[in-house]
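Module 6 notes. Inverse folding takes a fixed backbone as the condition and produces residue identities as the prediction. Think of it as a translation problem where the source language is geometry and the target language is the twenty amino acids. Below is one complete input and output pair. Work through it position by position during the lab.
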């Protein structure tokens, strides 16, 4: 039973019935069936609905309102790799603080659903594909205002009165001083919740879509690249570590991104690599200290790994050295796979 939902939607069976009724009315097309998707979110229930004409669409019930604007921006940049989304008029649900939405269905399965079957090859392919997708997310305009917001966010984190955070005050102070150099970087549409549940791909690892853009915003380039640690790396026994194919995954991501980026933007990035490095580190900090409105949510497991993650250097600056130690890597791919 889903206790967060009102009585008329507090079971899977009730939600399936409602999803079928809503879509049949919203699209004026008969519905064959509806079934829950494999992985559900924390504040929503999502259903895959098959229409009479054979097409599949998505219905999502949310217990919080949703601004569809960020999805529209992402769809403009990435096309069908981002689902179209629109609210469904359903006063009988919104009065009970449940907001239903219709979405187009993006093909593929999530990274999380497939990673147990993937070998190194699929993981590397997925990261290269992500780099090509990132190359489409640059936006026009000056970074000045966005950088001011970044500095204000860093100051909010610095102001935390938390004994677990205090060892990193010096690092945060350094980033506050260094942040103005991000004004030399182009603007970039940043997902801000990129993880294995939100990346969809085919069986070969080629990305078919990215979902859940509600936290997305315009940032200086590099902020969104802080997620590289948590895609090419993983949490094992409550500790962050590199995946076996980390080096090829991480380098593949950056190489694909730079290769596919517009020539003028690539020149701008190559002329400001120190700023890119700083921006990636700030993005790493923002992943650990999640800012949601007035709240700062500290990811305790990731915070323990910050001393390692803070040593990260992008490939364009470190050359043949490893990402975190600065020492040459003898074996690009480790033998075997980590177990969780």
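Target side of the pair, the amino acids:
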């Amino acid at each position: 039973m889903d206790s967060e939902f009102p009585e008329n939607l507090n079971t899977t069976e009730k939600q399936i019935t409602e999803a079928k009724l809503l879509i049949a009315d919203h699209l004026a097309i008969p519905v064959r069936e509806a079934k829950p998707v494999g992985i559900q979110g924390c504040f929503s229930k999502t259903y895959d609905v098959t229409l009479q004409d054979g097409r599949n669409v998505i219905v999502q019930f949310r217990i919080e309102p949703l601004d569809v604007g960020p999805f529209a921006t992402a769809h403009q940049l990435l096309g069908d790799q981002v689902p179209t989304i629109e609210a469904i008029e359903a006063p009988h649900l919104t009065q009970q603080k449940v907001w239903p939405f219709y979405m187009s269905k993006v093909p593929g399965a999530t990274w999380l659903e497939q990673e147990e079957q993937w070998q190194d090859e699929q993981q590397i392919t997925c990261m290269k594909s992500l780099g090509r997708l990132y190359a489409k997310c640059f936006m026009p305009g000056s970074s000045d205002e966005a950088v001011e917001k970044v500095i204000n966010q860093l100051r909010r984190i610095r102001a935390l009165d938390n004994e677990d955070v205090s060892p990193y005050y010096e690092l945060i102070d350094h980033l506050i001083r260094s942040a103005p150099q991000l004004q030399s970087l182009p603007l970039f549409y940043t997902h801000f919740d990129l993880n294995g549940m939100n990346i969809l791909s085919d069986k070969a690892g080629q990305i078919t879509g990215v979902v859940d853009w509600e936290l997305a915003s315009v940032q200086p380039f590099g902020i969104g690249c802080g997620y590289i640690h948590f895609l090419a790396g993983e949490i094992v026994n409550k500790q962050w570590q590199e995946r076996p194919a980390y080096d090829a995954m991480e380098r593949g991501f950056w190489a694909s991104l730079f290769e596919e980026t517009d020539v003028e933007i690539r020149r701008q990035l190559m002329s400001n690599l120190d700023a890119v490095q700083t921006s990636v580190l700030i993005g790493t900090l923002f992943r650990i200290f999640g800012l949601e409105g007035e709240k700062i949510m500290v990811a305790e497991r990731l915070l323990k790994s910050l001393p390692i993650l803070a040593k990260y250097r992008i490939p364009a600056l470190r050359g043949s050295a490893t990402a975190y130690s600065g020492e040459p890597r003898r074996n690009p791919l480790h033998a075997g796979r980590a177990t969780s």
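Reference fact for the lab report: Confidence is low (pLDDT under 50) at residues 329-340.
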